[in-house]
Specification:
The structure is a homodimer of 242-residue chains. Chain A is of the alpha+beta class and 242 residues long. The first copy, chain A, is built from seven helices and ten strands. In chain A, strands 1, 2, 3, 4, 5, 6 and 7 form a seven-stranded mixed sheet that branches. A three-stranded antiparallel sheet of chain A has the order 8-10-9. In chain A, strand 9 and strand 10 (216-221) form a beta hairpin. Chain A is elongated, with a radius of gyration of 21 Å. Chains A and B meet through strand 1, helix 1, strand 5 and strand 6 of A and strand 1, helix 1, strand 5 and strand 6 of B. Strand 1 of chain A pairs antiparallel with strand 1 of chain B. The structure holds a DNA duplex (27 and 27 nucleotides).
DNA sequence: TCAAAAGTGTTCAAGTTACACCCATGT
DNA sequence: ACATGGGTGTAACTTGAACACTTTTGA
């Protein structure tokens, strides 16, 4: 019933234990034009075929979980080199009406460019504004909610802009990112002061004139200082949000 | 090869997907006599039989993951009514030399009384001082390290004493708990000030005279205020530790 | 010249840190 | 009377919160 090809020279113990279907679901956040988006897909298999869902599929025999996540994301959307982190394992016995499936949720943050929109659409996937999220199958709404909560917590402790913004970005953009994550207004003077005080931003000569006549200076992250800060956890602490 | 008893009226989809062994491992912290302890067991099955290990076993068909954790803890140690939380899913394909096993780690905090020591020993389990932790099998050292890190993070954001201390406790005890978790000295004057400022402790009439001649007042948590504080995440923030 | 977004400083309140001595009591 | 652990207060400093106006420039 369950094919078990000889995958290695590993000996087999535990022969009498039960086996389970194990899946991975990916929650991918992207930031573009001042809005937070998430990557969704219309489900291609029964049951619940055609309904909105996260990117997900089954883990293969002998496949490292992290690699399964990468493979599944690539197969479903074409996206590669996305750094995913494990979020949580969803293990209720009746969560999936198709069968008993244990699912491990992964999250990632991406900087989104125009071209990314059409690329994933070729796979039937779509970047949807967080605020316009449709209802999702199974417990995917719950997964999304947890992922957003984790993103908010993370944004308070780490300067996450690195992952969601292009290499060059302006302070108004960074502020909008934080406001999008917290769905809340943040005082711009205090925000600038705080963010700059961490000393991880480099001001560039160039200005972005696409948003205003005056133009806003571009900044970039100082990768070395950024990584040093990440190491001593908790040095970064954004108090401007509740 | 893998028995699949009809567990419900659920239809079966996904018939061609691979199945996996799924286990749960439990990291249980206990606090007693001013030291942090963890619950360990000498492994009873091959491979690695007889070596130190966390409490763990396999998830059954159709079993809710959280329930599996409870069952496994009870079967292996007799402990019941322990509130466990999921920590992380460990999914490297070669982590267990016995076979490919995906393991979900759970953690819990317990107040430890003298009687608990002998109870678990009847099952062959043992409360071991954190500082004297032996080398553990497979990736259980890694699980432990992650659990401790999470405990430290949690202790900074929540008044966790509730779970690790007896109902009545003294401030010196609470201080020692925090020092044990962070393996670091904390200024007692500042600690008292900060902890009391949260307004979740009730001072009792009674004193504990077992530790000193003067005696230290007992306190208890005010459960209502405690739960209110938990709700607005981040109200509690212990800045005294690095 | 004006509209639209970028950029800038100060004051007040709150919280954090560092630090040393007296208290109560059992033996 | 003394040894042991319990308990307390303050001053200097750092950080956070609230808040309004000037600058630049393309149209």
């Amino acid at each position: 019933m369950t094919p078990q090809p000889a995958e290695s020279v590993q000996k087999r113990y535990y022969q009498h234990s039960n086996k389970h279907l194990v899946a991975v679901d990916c929650i991918i956040f992207g930031f573009q034009n001042d809005v937070l988006k998430i990557l969704l897909l219309k489900r291609k298999v029964a049951p619940l075929k055609g309904q909105w869902s996260l990117i997900g599929s089954f883990v293969n025999t002998g496949e490292h979980l992290d690699n399964a996540a990468k493979r599944i994301l690539k197969e479903s959307t074409g996206l590669q080199n996305v750094f995913m982190e494990q979020l949580h394992c969803f293990g209720k016995s009746d969560r999936d009406p198709g069968d008993r499936v244990i699912s491990i949720a992964y999250t990632a943050l991406m900087r989104l460019e125009e071209s990314d929109e059409s690329k994933v659409e070729a796979f039937g996937a779509k970047w949807v504004e967080l605020k316009k999220k449709p209802d999702l199958v199974i417990d995917h709404n719950e997964m999304m909610a947890l992922a957003l909560k984790q993103l908010q917590r993370k944004a308070r402790l780490y300067p996450i802009g690195f992952e969601l913004l292009p290499k060059k970005f302006t302070l108004p953009q960074l502020l909008k990112l934080y406001q999008a994550i917290y769905q809340q207004k943040i005082d711009d003077r205090n925000f600038r002061k705080k963010i700059l005080s961490f000393g991880i931003l480099k001001k560039l000569e160039e200005k972005d004139k696409s948003e205003s006549k005056k133009g806003a200076f571009y900044y970039s992250f100082d990768k070395k200082k950024y990584e040093k800060m990440i190491k001593n956890e908790g040095r970064f602490f954004l108090t401007l949000v509740k």
